[in-house]
UniProtKB/TrEMBL annotation:
<dbReference type="InterPro" id="IPR036388">
    <property type="entry name" value="WH-like_DNA-bd_sf"/>
</dbReference>
<dbReference type="Pfam" id="PF00462">
    <property type="entry name" value="Glutaredoxin"/>
</dbReference>
<dbReference type="InterPro" id="IPR036249">
    <property type="entry name" value="Thioredoxin-like_sf"/>
</dbReference>
<dbReference type="InterPro" id="IPR002109">
    <property type="entry name" value="Glutaredoxin"/>
</dbReference>
<dbReference type="Pfam" id="PF00610">
    <property type="entry name" value="DEP"/>
</dbReference>
<protein>
    <recommendedName>
        <fullName>Glutaredoxin domain-containing protein</fullName>
    </recommendedName>
</protein>
<feature type="region of interest" description="Disordered">
    <location>
        <begin position="1"/>
        <end position="26"/>
    </location>
</feature>
<dbReference type="InterPro" id="IPR036390">
    <property type="entry name" value="WH_DNA-bd_sf"/>
</dbReference>
<dbReference type="InterPro" id="IPR000591">
    <property type="entry name" value="DEP_dom"/>
</dbReference>
<feature type="domain" description="DEP">
    <location>
        <begin position="219"/>
        <end position="272"/>
    </location>
</feature>
<feature type="domain" description="Glutaredoxin">
    <location>
        <begin position="98"/>
        <end position="157"/>
    </location>
</feature>
Length: 273
């Protein structure tokens, strides 16, 4: 280090600085220092409380507690509250939940979501996909084909309104345990089996499938912009009708009706539902 020449003037302390430095406390803490200290204190107290609680639980498990098992539901720490939720045991249902539905039915979707949220297994019978089951629905409901219609085993519960009524009154769980607690009888609605419908329905589906093969070869399927939205792998209804007219050598009205049949049998669907 090169020191300044001895004859150079020495720097003097500005007036008032010494007085302010003497007035400051010996341990001056900034806001950041205070916050850091607060976090460290909370962390240490939290760790100590957790360690103490785990140690006490371990001593209780070793047999030092009472005969009855002590279940800790909640305990308070410094600045923190921990709540332990006891998981209820799921009761096994021996019966079967089934309901009749239609495609694009809002109430049917609500019933489906209701059972899924409660992790309940159910069987959905879509009478648009399985039109032969509509006759069964009318027989079970006394002539009505309105959907959804919910069944617990062979017992008809009703639609969405009846389901909400049971839930709001608090008797839904008891009703399920009463009916679904036993094995499902043979006269309950059977689960649909794809590919084993009536013979005439299979023949009609085969005819529709043959038309679909021709449509896939003659109708241009490509990405399009519809209603200011980009849609992939689609075709226009007008092009479909023109292809059916030329292939089947039929009128426009019949071609439109065939297109509707393709939609009802879920070979095609509208890009916007």
């Amino acid at each position: 280090m090169i020191r300044p020449h001895s004859r150079l003037p020495k720097p003097e302390t500005p007036p008032g600085v010494m007085e302010r430095s003497r007035s400051l406390p010996e341990s001056f803490e900034t806001p950041a220092t205070v916050i850091g200290k607060f976090i460290r204190d909370k962390r240490n107290s939290f760790s100590a409380a957790i360690t103490k609680r785990i140690s006490s639980l371990g001593r209780d498990d070793d047999g030092g507690g009472d005969d009855e098992e002590e279940i800790v539901k909640e305990f308070n720490l410094v600045g923190l509250k921990v709540i332990k939720t006891l998981k209820e045991e799921k009761k096994e249902l021996k019966g079967r939940i089934s309901f009749f539905s239609r495609s694009n039915c809002r109430d049917s979707g609500a019933v489906r979501s209701f059972f899924r949220e409660r992790n309940l297994n159910f069987v959905e019978i879509n009478i648009d996909v399985y039109p032969g089951r509509e006759k069964e629905l009318k027989e079970r409901t006394g002539g009505s084909a309105a959907v959804p219609q919910i069944f617990f085993n062979e017992k008809l519960i009703g639609g969405l309104v009846a389901l909400n009524s049971l839930r709001n009154s608090g008797v839904l769980e008891a009703k399920m345990e009463e009916i679904l607690g036993r094995k499902c009888p043979e006269d309950a609605p059977a689960p649909p089996v794809y590919g084993f419908d009536e013979e005439e329905e299979v023949m009609a589906a085969d005819e529709m499938a043959e038309i679909v093969r021709v449509v896939r070869q003659r109708v241009p399927i490509q990405d399009r912009i519809m209603k200011m939205k980009f849609v992939k792998n689609c075709f226009s209804g007008a092009e479909l009708v023109e292809a059916l007219i030329h292939h089947l050598d039929c009128g426009r009205r019949k071609a439109v009706e065939i297109g509707k049949q393709l939609a009802r049998r879920h070979f095609i669907h509208h890009v916007f539902g």
